Amino acid sequence: MKIPENLKYTRDHEWIDEEGRVGITDYAQESLGDVVFVELPQVGQVVKTGEAFGVVESVKSVSDLYSPVDGTVTAVNEALNETPELINQDPYNQGWIIQVDVEGYGEELLDAKAYQQQVEGE
């Protein structure tokens, strides 16, 4: 399981990078199984920390996606409409889901070490 050092993480298994790109972690995609559909928000949608902004559907289940920050969606990964399995293949790069213009942090995000400790405890 990969946990990149340069990202911040939520307890709900989302990550965010310095540019505001958001996705789900390797642990989350592994738990979900094969991703078959992603419901993306609209560009311009306002997101709030901890609130659902979309849905990821796998062969096993349907899960809400939760925003790690407050902000406005500036881009969505359109490639996921045709190739949702990018989330399984490359969750930290090609499998990003949205990009947010970050306006604030409603909760403390975890660094890689703290996130790894959480995952090991699950």
TrEMBL record:
The modification N6-lipoyllysine is found at residue 60. Binds 1 lipoyl cofactor covalently. Gene3D superfamilies: 2.40.50.100. Its cofactor is (R)-lipoate. The keyword Oxidoreductase does not apply. Pfam families: GCV_H. InterPro entries: 2-oxoA_DH_lipoyl-BS, Biotin_lipoyl, GCV_H, GCV_H/Fam206, GCV_H_sub, Single_hybrid_motif. GO terms for cellular component: cytosol; glycine cleavage complex. GO terms for biological process: glycine decarboxylation via glycine cleavage system; protein lipoylation. Residues 19-101 form the Lipoyl-binding domain. Coiled coil: none annotated. Keywords: Lipoyl. HAMAP family: GcvH. Belongs to the GcvH family. The glycine cleavage system is composed of four proteins: P, T, L and H. NCBIfam families: gcvH, PRK01202.1. PANTHER family: GLYCINE CLEAVAGE SYSTEM H PROTEIN (PTHR11715), GLYCINE CLEAVAGE SYSTEM H PROTEIN-RELATED (PTHR11715:SF3). The glycine cleavage system catalyzes the degradation of glycine. The H protein shuttles the methylamine group of glycine from the P protein to the T protein. This is Glycine cleavage system H protein. It comes from Sulfobacillus thermosulfidooxidans. The lineage of its organism: Bacteria, Bacillati, Bacillota, Clostridia, Eubacteriales. The gene is gcvH.
